[in-house]
Amino acid sequence: WASLIFSEEESSPRDKLQRNSKGLADFCIKNIDQADFGRREIEVAQQEMPALMNLRKRAEEEKPLSGAKVVGCTHITAQTAVLIETLVALGAQCRWVACNIFSTQNAVAAAVVEGGVPVFAWKGESEDDFWWCIDRSVCADAWQPNMILDDGGDLTHWIYKKYPSLLKRIRGIVEESVTGVFRLYQLSKAGKLCVPAMNVNDSVTKQKFDNLYCCRESILDGLKRTTDVMFGGKQVLVCGYGEVGKGCCSALKALGAVVYVTEVDPICALQACMDGFRVLKLSEVIRQADMVITCTGNKNVVVREHLDRMKNGCIVCNMGHSNTEIDLVSLHTSELKWERVRPQVDHIIWPDGKRIVLLAEGRLLNLSCSTVPSFVLSITATTQVGERRWANEYVASLHLATFDAHLSELSDDQAKYLGISKNGPFKPSYYRSANTHTHTHTHTHTHTNAGLSNCF
Amino acid sequence: WASLIFSEEESSPRDKLQRNSKGLADFCIKNIDQADFGRREIEVAQQEMPALMNLRKRAEEEKPLSGAKVVGCTHITAQTAVLIETLVALGAQCRWVACNIFSTQNAVAAAVVEGGVPVFAWKGESEDDFWWCIDRSVCADAWQPNMILDDGGDLTHWIYKKYPSLLKRIRGIVEESVTGVFRLYQLSKAGKLCVPAMNVNDSVTKQKFDNLYCCRESILDGLKRTTDVMFGGKQVLVCGYGEVGKGCCSALKALGAVVYVTEVDPICALQACMDGFRVLKLSEVIRQADMVITCTGNKNVVVREHLDRMKNGCIVCNMGHSNTEIDLVSLHTSELKWERVRPQVDHIIWPDGKRIVLLAEGRLLNLSCSTVPSFVLSITATTQVGERRWANEYVASLHLATFDAHLSELSDDQAKYLGISKNGPFKPSYYRSANTHTHTHTHTHTHTNAGLSNCF
Amino acid sequence: WASLIFSEEESSPRDKLQRNSKGLADFCIKNIDQADFGRREIEVAQQEMPALMNLRKRAEEEKPLSGAKVVGCTHITAQTAVLIETLVALGAQCRWVACNIFSTQNAVAAAVVEGGVPVFAWKGESEDDFWWCIDRSVCADAWQPNMILDDGGDLTHWIYKKYPSLLKRIRGIVEESVTGVFRLYQLSKAGKLCVPAMNVNDSVTKQKFDNLYCCRESILDGLKRTTDVMFGGKQVLVCGYGEVGKGCCSALKALGAVVYVTEVDPICALQACMDGFRVLKLSEVIRQADMVITCTGNKNVVVREHLDRMKNGCIVCNMGHSNTEIDLVSLHTSELKWERVRPQVDHIIWPDGKRIVLLAEGRLLNLSCSTVPSFVLSITATTQVGERRWANEYVASLHLATFDAHLSELSDDQAKYLGISKNGPFKPSYYRSANTHTHTHTHTHTHTNAGLSNCF
Amino acid sequence: WASLIFSEEESSPRDKLQRNSKGLADFCIKNIDQADFGRREIEVAQQEMPALMNLRKRAEEEKPLSGAKVVGCTHITAQTAVLIETLVALGAQCRWVACNIFSTQNAVAAAVVEGGVPVFAWKGESEDDFWWCIDRSVCADAWQPNMILDDGGDLTHWIYKKYPSLLKRIRGIVEESVTGVFRLYQLSKAGKLCVPAMNVNDSVTKQKFDNLYCCRESILDGLKRTTDVMFGGKQVLVCGYGEVGKGCCSALKALGAVVYVTEVDPICALQACMDGFRVLKLSEVIRQADMVITCTGNKNVVVREHLDRMKNGCIVCNMGHSNTEIDLVSLHTSELKWERVRPQVDHIIWPDGKRIVLLAEGRLLNLSCSTVPSFVLSITATTQVGERRWANEYVASLHLATFDAHLSELSDDQAKYLGISKNGPFKPSYYRSANTHTHTHTHTHTHTNAGLSNCF
Q1: Which PANTHER family match (chains A, B, C, D) (predicted)?
Q2: pLDDT of res. A373
Q3: Between helices D106-114 and D78-89, what is the axis angle to 10°?
């Protein structure tokens, strides 16, 4: 099928006029005819997202998001579709656009459109397409967003730059990524952030569940689907031992890889040691690595000098939040030949014939797998405006049913002994930032652990 | 793309006349034009099969398989292609056919044909196509096989039935699967096995590396690609704790699943206990399982009664050697609705709306991932006719370079102390059958641990 | 040897007059003659405590603790001895007493006394002995403490009650345990905490290294030394999935036990699920448990009703911070017979002959193993008064040498990109409380992450 | 207490006349008065040995070992005591002696004597004591053994040398260790083995359960009890990746150690790779190791040259079957100082002050922990004379109750499909030698998988 994809030389979606079965034409996607298949994908995803489905049931009658006009810019996957349709079920109006030119699942986009939500996105957009889609998502006849749900900050940036007048209506920005939070923080420092912003990334649920547990699974999945590599016995170098790095290392070790870690932070380095990983400098192990995975959130972690010293066949990929970790610029030089061997897989060929296998052109490897639970959080705040700590515990409890887990309950006596309420919150107020590995800083205008409904 | 596959209503490959670039027309595959893409897949696979590539280098000049005319019936994957082309490099002439109607990688088949080897196989053959292909692989103008490489016994069966006269030329049968070995054994008991047969399945390398280690990786990969399921916290029931079951359990446990085991054999059951798995009867845990995986080699392990009691959304699949483990017949009844949601994924819908997710229609889940190293073994015997134990050690040593592993060497004194040669074999003669979980029995006519070149 | 211990019917240390080799008589321990043996134990411990040894080297000349008069009340083990002697090396004068009537290593106490530090402690003190020793440690001719290092709050309590006049000289209290912190917090709420107090328990190093990693090792060690139990295949119930519970579960699972978890907190419960543990109520699994381990920090978690339903031979022990988790009072009834089978091991025998194996009478199982790294922290602040976050990172970096770990360094450019200094701190200011599972609350008078030298 | 042991300068047990409570004086042990304490230890051990206790119940009436006169030479531990007393319960008469001068548990020996079985053993025998005890165990008034149960071959050797006339009465030798089996094999090759000998070491149960699973637990226990070392982050070198090495590596890795493996056998080396361990030569990693553990069964694996290059504080111990793996002779030179710091722990001090920590003087580290299940096997054959394969499965099934494991049963149809009986044996006849890593060879006179009752 891959060859089919490659040979598809179709016209751009921007040149096509399509309508969904109810006549809606306000969207731009690959092919509305794929909606049925996309719907099945969404149904599969729903089985894995009980908390959102639960929320729909509990909150549908109240329509707590009634009046919300959400413009969203995220990866467009089956999981996102479940989020979007939950927002709609809760009363919101939505328009959506992709935050990444490659990650859109075309059939899913079709299903969302068929369900009535305008989407502007397809797999394989050009840079120009990307901004055109963002622009289209913001501008609609007789519709102006009052809520932004962003992943990476591009949508927010566009609105600040092109539609500053819209900002006064915006009642909140929910930002997903470290990069986006950092951009907000700089706006804030410059005194330009006039809108309440919520940092999803620092939430407990995001840190603990999305990063650690999702990455544990998605690193294996991402590598297998792209390269079919066997993990057993391979030497893997993981750069960074925050939650993402911990998840990657744990999974790879479990499947028999020999894992090395690089770190700049002594606490994380010591954790890596205690977890059984050798902590070394990149230059010390680069020659022997079969795979190199970046998870630092930093830039230029793997540079040309390292790539020059890697052995033939070494796989290089990025699980961090930005696409800056691998110095790609240094690889676009005349002596190196690029050969695309599969979708998302490039061989970069050195003059002596050495091949480095670069995945997703250095973009985030786990596009489809690790974006879900953080969204869950945003939603949750919907029904929990007041006590934010409690929100986290509520999200967690919504998921326990999936695992048929049975919580114990404190007796009156025990609750008194601990000095807390029988029904929680069980964590102290400063727990919020637990275990975070990021370097972002809170600010009066950036609230964490909150969600859409804090703005309504 | 999946919808593209589904909508492809093309004519049968049997109706098409194709030629490769050198004019060869003696083959039947989906589309010779995909050869370039298939070649890239084969090149990727070669990176993971250093032992075969090594053998090519070492043995190319000697052409030890010169004179061998091999007809092969296996899964047709990039890995098989590396095997076939190694056989050719060693001097053999080959014709190939698929042992499974679904597992053929069309582009790989095209690349092999472009390389000059007749292949008769495509993804999605009908039952009639299947036997037609087998027939075509055996019959060629002025070419008669003297060697069979079979996986499952269908090719051998066909030759016995349709071309008994060919048998006198056959100098050896290499059989891969337990099922095929069992069929050979029955032939042998009936006095009808007049050809030396080699049982690859019982070899140390097959048991230890192919089954245990490959399944450890392929169970995760197979489940993820088909269902995107998250493993963490899921309750999984694994039927059978032989090498395949051990591999599955180990991987699932490592990724945070709660794993239960069923077993009939007390030794395997005790191993499961000591490895940290609860050993229970199927009926005791069936209601709580999120996934059920069969690895017994037995039949009707999961029957309608169990399927009726599974919970909504339960995933059912088979990693065992046969496709008999799940009683599929019982699911083809009028009250149950089947819905194909993705390739290889069916939802079976009960009257009350409950959905069971059946993968690969109960066939082997890990078609593409676990077939490699056993082939490696067959080849190895090529260069090692005499001492079979040694062969296993030789195969192992060929792979050590991949892992940059450095073997220690015995001193003269130490070798003397142990009473063995400095260069091995290191295992006693009875090691052959180590750890096997199968129920097949040796016979004077079925030699194990051997390969093609034992016949030359 | 155990029988030797039992048969020792010696006079009380309080009745003996002993002197060390320099004539010092101001101490009360079991037997000063064991000093040589204790010295060897301390030397062994020093090898495992490189950070403290390092500090001695670095800070010896400066004597930063010069003027400090420390009275300490902790477990008296070889590790504590390394701490005490480091304090002395840094310039402090110390007197020491045990915080637990059973945990004193007599030979170690002798070695410390021989080294010149007055110690008042022996294994097997009575309740009366315990308070007598505390009193003796506080009161000395011409010596008044200006610093308290406490574990559990008994020493602090005694000073508040008996020697309130001393408080005005006290420049700081370092408290180790949750219980002690809670008592300080209540003093503080009542407006009676007139001394700066430092909560070691909430520090990152304590939470991450002492609790998680130490418990991972000490749970196995504690169970083996007392019962020789085999872990493989055993069903173990762990109550509480904070850091201590996580460490216990991880170790037991790794050695093949089937582990169940009870939790009241949904976030911790969800983590347990994702880590592969069934979360159930105590009453659901109590009948099948081979071992029950409490790690909640709560009281009456395991009560008579549970104990009545346990199976014969079930092992019950406590890894939590208090000794209240198992309802011991309910076991001291006439129908139950207690039989001491080894030191720290009691069989409690039901009328029908059922035996429950109770370890350490419900006190903390890992007395000797898990108390070290938290002390390391206290010391560290010695050299780092200013920036507390940094202290944690400094402690971590001191330990990296042990593991021959090589930290990477940020380039100027990377540091700028992250908005942090090249040399750290790498964690945001709110990181302090990471991952804590405790229910204590900060207060203006209780500073965390600090150590002795903050007071000088 | 350790100092108490050291200071005990008592008279030799050989000089003492003792009697048990029934007047028996035919024994020589440390102190009969310790019997009560030893009895409690045996009761604790019984809880962990359900199969033997089960056998007592099932077979007691039949007295299948009636007429057997067993002289045994093994480690004398609580577990051995359970074995001995089971033999007696089954009708045998026994006399026992220690196979190791250090491993005897004195109180257990006392309890066994109090129970009526003559024992000649104590902890800390001299070489002369050792042979004197063996001699005493063989020679008794009006009692001549007809059965030998040996571990290491010393008893057998003594009888061959001193009492050849006894041999004609001996109906069987059960040998436990590789070393002993090798000695028997050499006797056999020389035509001097006139007695049926049973090799317990090669049995499935011994290999799989005793070696792999027991070592997984005992390596941790052995290291902790002697050195209190923390495993997390430590670099450990394991020499040999047979079942013992696999168990050690698995446990150490699970607790966070970085493990390296040396191997001579490519199959084992490849397994180590696939399990995630770097396979290197000893000389490549010796400088960085914190611990070195030998598990090869070979001699002079760690020699002076390696010891010279180890770093300060490196722990060296042996888990293999012989005490030859570490070249101890090379350490008894004048420039090295030995210092005993604890029982079983010597510091060997180099002229520059470097200390190497040698455990158990290079003898087997896990004396008390890993000797049990192999004995279980010997006993089992008691009730299963005919089919040896079945015996293994029977032993396994006896243990399943401990784990509350529920075996599935084959239907008639399934049994027929597999071609086996519904009740087993489930393994093919050649399964016997599964997974063995030893280098011993079978011989017409050495039967494996058999036990005492095969001789009656």
Answers
A1: ADENOSYLHOMOCYSTEINASE (PTHR23420), ADENOSYLHOMOCYSTEINASE 3 (PTHR23420:SF2)
A2: 39
A3: 20
- CATH number (domain holding residue D222): 3.40.50.720
Q: Is A366 annotated as a binding residue?
A: yes
Structural domain including C230 reads: 211-362
Name the interface residues of D facing A (CB cutoff 8 Å): 232-233, 235, 253, 255-258, 270, 273-278
For residues B18 and B159, membership in a common domain is answered with: yes
Distance separating alpha carbons of residues A19 and A35, to the nearest angstrom: 12
| Phi (first) and psi of residue A240, to 5 degrees | 105, 130
State whether C282 and C191 are in the same domain.
no
Give the Cα-Cα-Cα angle C261, C265, C271 (nearest 5 degrees). 60
**Contact: B251, A251; criterion CB under 8 Å:** no
* 8-state DSSP, D434: T
Backbone angles phi, psi at D259, to 5 degrees: -110, 130
B169, B244, B437, D234, D429 from B180: Cα distances, Å: 20, 18, 16, 48, 20
In terms of Cβ atoms closer than 10 Å to its own Cβ (0-12, 13-18, 19+), residue B22 is exposed
Q: What tokens does C354 get?
A: 């059922």
pLDDT digits (tens, 9 = 90+) for C341-393: 877 889 999 999 899 999 988 988 875 433 343 344 444 433 333 334 445 67
Of C418, C433, C435, the CB nearest to A298: C418
Both B283 and B342 in a single domain? yes
> Which chain D residues are within 8 Å of B416, Cβ to Cβ?
none
Token pair listed for D204:
């499935």
Collect all residues of chain B within an 8 Å Cβ-Cβ radius of residue A6: 37
Which chain A residue lies closest to B343 (C-alpha atoms)? A37
Q: Structural domain tally of chain A?
A: 2
Neighbours of chain D (3+ CB pairs under 8 A): A, B, C
A393·C265 Cβ contact <8 A: yes
The residue of chain D nearest to residue C2, with distances taken between CA atoms, is: D37
Q: Is the ipTM of this complex over 0.85?
A: no
Instruction: Indicate yes or no: CB of B299 within 8 angstroms of CB of D413.
Output: yes
Contacts D257 to A, Cβ<8 Å: 276
- Do B172 and B262 lie in a common domain? no
Residue B289: inside a domain, yes or no?
Answer: yes
C47 and C167, same domain (yes or no): yes
Tell me the pTM.
0.80
Cβ contact D233–A258 (<8 Å): no
Does any domain span residue C389? Answer: no
pLDDT tens readout for residues C92-103: 899 999 998 888
Report the half-sphere exposure of A275 (CA within 13 A, side-chain side). 25
Quickly list H helices, C352-401. Answer: 372-380, 388-400
Mutate which: D229, D252, D258, vs A, most A CBs within 10 A: D258
Q: Spell out the residues 6+ positions from residue D395 whose beta carbon is closer than 8 angstroms to its own.
A: D51, D205, D376, D377, D380
Integer Cα distance of D425 and D429 in angstroms: 9
Q: For residue B388, which residues of chain D lie inside 8 Å, CB to CB?
A: none
Helices (H), D139-260: 154-162, 178-189, 204-205, 215-227, 243-254
- From C124, B209, B419, A340, select the one nearest D182 (Cα to Cα): B419
D contact test, residue of A237, A258, A277 with most D CBs within 10 A: A258
Residue D446 Cα, gap to closest chain C Cα (Å): 32
Claim to verify: residue B125 and residue B268 sit in the same structural domain: no
B chain contacts of residue A48, beta-carbon cutoff 8 Å: 228-230
Asked whether residue B157 falls in the same domain as residue B128, the answer is yes
Is C317 found in the same domain as C192? no
CB pair distance less than 8 Å for C400 and A274: no
Going by C-beta distance under 8 Å and a sequence separation of 6 or more, which residues neighbour residue C27? C18, C20, C113, C118, C119, C120
What whole-number percentage of chain A has pLDDT above 90?
A: 42
